Amino acid sequence: MVSFLLSRRAVLAGSMALACALAGQTAYAAPQVLRVGIMAGEDEDVWPVVAANAARDGLELKLVTFSDYNAPNEALAEHELDANAFQHTPFLDAQNKAKGYGIVSVGHTYVAPIGLYSTRWKSVADLPDKAVIGVPNDPTNEGRALLLLQKLGLIKLAADAGNTPTALDITENPHNISIRELDAGVVGRALTDLDGAVINTDWAKKVGVDIEKTRIAQETADNNPYICIIAVNEADKSAPWVAKLVHAYQQPNVRQALDKAFHGAVLPSWP
Fold first, then answer.
1. Whole-Å CA distances, 202 to 19, 55, 57, 61, 207
2. Which of these, 144, 146, 74, lies nearest to 103 by C-alpha position?
3. For residue 54, what is the enclosing H or E element?
4. pLDDT tens for each residue of 73-82
């Protein structure tokens, strides 16, 4: 009888220990792991700050870096990533159309205003007739460059050209400007051989263009369609972690990290 009672007590004690262990496991919620694709470079200095913010909200971010601008959307569409943050909406729209992706924007990050640079002239008004201006030759950035030249009054584009015009959409060219289409990585290096060049901020930095001294015009941030975004697959857009991820980015310490990493060349794009 005594041995039976001891055995029963042992079973009860074991059951209570197991129950406590299970209760402990229930009380501890492991962080949700998210794979986020970013581009190599300055964003590698910014996203660890985002990851620290996200950790406080139960998210563990695994940052995956890329050097090919086409790869992050392919990886996201194949569910090798949960989100990416490297592109603006016109680029995403073009990729969705060309590749059949179902990727959507869920939040803004920053805008890197594209600029017109010159080592020969101090202002847009100084540009001579028949000036040669270099522009990136990929569809999105060429369109962006031509829209800037139109806003500056140097050319006029067809009304139906949208956000991706080409040189063929130029309907008025009162100063007989010559548009020279160059690879985005080359146009900055060719600056000294041109009257001017429209260069993406990241490429200007990479090739050593003195942004402050040679920039004679740039886009404004207001109503800019080229604001960079956080993107996810459409099926995930309402998942609870999406709002947490966006919230982790849109914080004052991330503003500070952007300014430090990009030396003021990009502008945060959330309220």
1. 56, 29, 31, 24, 9
2. 74
3. helix 43-55
4. 999 999 999 9
pLDDT at 216: 97
Measured distance CA(165)–CA(140) in Å, rounded: 8
Total Cβ atoms within 10 A of residue 236: 16
pLDDT of 29 reads: 54
Nearest to 198 by CA among 112, 110, 118: 118
Helix (H) or strand (E) holding 201: helix 201-206
Provide the sign of the torsion angle of the four alpha carbons 112, 118, 119, 122, taken in this order. negative
Q: Is the pLDDT at 110 greater than 70, yes or no?
A: yes
Structure tokens at 218: 């740039």
**Dist CA 271 CA 255 (whole Å):** 11
Given the structure tokens 């009054």, which residue do they identify? 153
Percent residues over pLDDT 70 in the chain: 89
Q: Where are the beta strands (DSSP E) in 40-185?
A: 59-66, 83-88, 103-108, 110-111, 115-117, 132-136, 156-157, 170-172, 178-182
Q: What confidence score (pLDDT) does residue 263 get?
A: 83
Mean pLDDT calculated for residue range 230-243? 98
Predicted local distance difference test score (pLDDT) of residue 163: 82
Spell out a b/e string for 249-265, using b for 16 or more CB atoms within 10 Å of the CB, else e. bbbeebbebbeebbeeb
C-alpha 18/C-alpha 142 separation (Å) is 65
Whole-number Cα distances in Å, 193 to 55, 129, 187, 200, 208: 49, 16, 10, 18, 15
